[in-house]
Amino acid sequence: MSLSDFEVQIKRMEGQEDILLPQKMSAAASGFDLHAAVSEPVVLAPGERKLIPTGFALSMSPELEAQIRPRSGLAFKHGITTLNSPGTIDADYRGEVKVLLINHGQEPFVIQRNERIAQMVFQLVPQIGLREVTELTETERGSGGFGHTGR
Ligand SMILES: O=c1ccn([C@H]2C[C@H](O)[C@@H](COP(=O)(O)OP(=O)(O)OP(=O)(O)O)O2)c(=O)[nH]1
Ligand SMILES: [Mg+2]
């Protein structure tokens, strides 16, 4: 199997010639790190959320999706995470990819242009057909959930 089984097209937004494109930081990293395409430094106050542009848009085949996930280092050190984690980039979305960051930390956090703010992981999406029925198959678990097997 080749190293790139799928080609995803990426297009810079206008005026973003200097923005770093998503980048894998190690050979087998699962995510491409995403860079902030802010025109000037952006401050996230404690508790504040902001939509941060990345400077690019994507085109991929319908069998794929991209997930926007937090970087654990930012989460651990600064309480910075993605609010809608994992964010969903639909295969047919052609707008700019954006990252919804929230500051769960105690200190203001400054985002600089081209800083790595999140990561993007591509996933296969099985094509599912939903079929309505009146009876579901029986299982041992049945409707037990939400901790019914204990803590
Ligand atoms: O973190 C994210 C999440 C979403 N999107 C873009 C791509 C995605 O395809 C689109 C819609 O996202 P989603 O389906 O999560 O949001 P929605 O509230 O259901 O909006 P819509 O009604 O447009 O589907 O917004 C991003 O750029 N970043
Ligand atoms: Mg949606």
From TrEMBL:
Top-tier EC class: hydrolase
Annotated EC: 3.6.1.23
Stored InterPro entries: dUTPase, dUTPase-like, dUTPase-like_sf, dUTPase_trimeric
Reaction(s) this enzyme catalyzes, per UniProt: dUTP + H2O = dUMP + diphosphate + H(+)
Residue sites binding substrate per the record: 71-73, 84, 88-90
GO biological process: dUMP biosynthetic process; dUTP catabolic process
Residue span, dUTPase-like domain: 21-150
Cofactor(s) listed: Mg(2+)
Keywords: Hydrolase, Magnesium, Metal-binding, Nucleotide metabolism
Keyword Glycosyltransferase: no
Gene Ontology MF annotations: dUTP diphosphatase activity; magnesium ion binding
Pathway: Pyrimidine metabolism; dUMP biosynthesis; dUMP from dCTP (dUTP route): step 2/2
HAMAP family: dUTPase_bact (MF_00116)
Family note: Belongs to the dUTPase family.
Function recorded in the entry: This enzyme is involved in nucleotide metabolism: it produces dUMP, the immediate precursor of thymidine nucleotides and it decreases the intracellular concentration of dUTP so that uracil cannot be incorporated into DNA.
Record-given protein name: Deoxyuridine 5'-triphosphate nucleotidohydrolase
Lineage: Bacteria, Bacillati, Bacillota, Bacilli, Bacillales
Gene name for this UniProt entry: dut
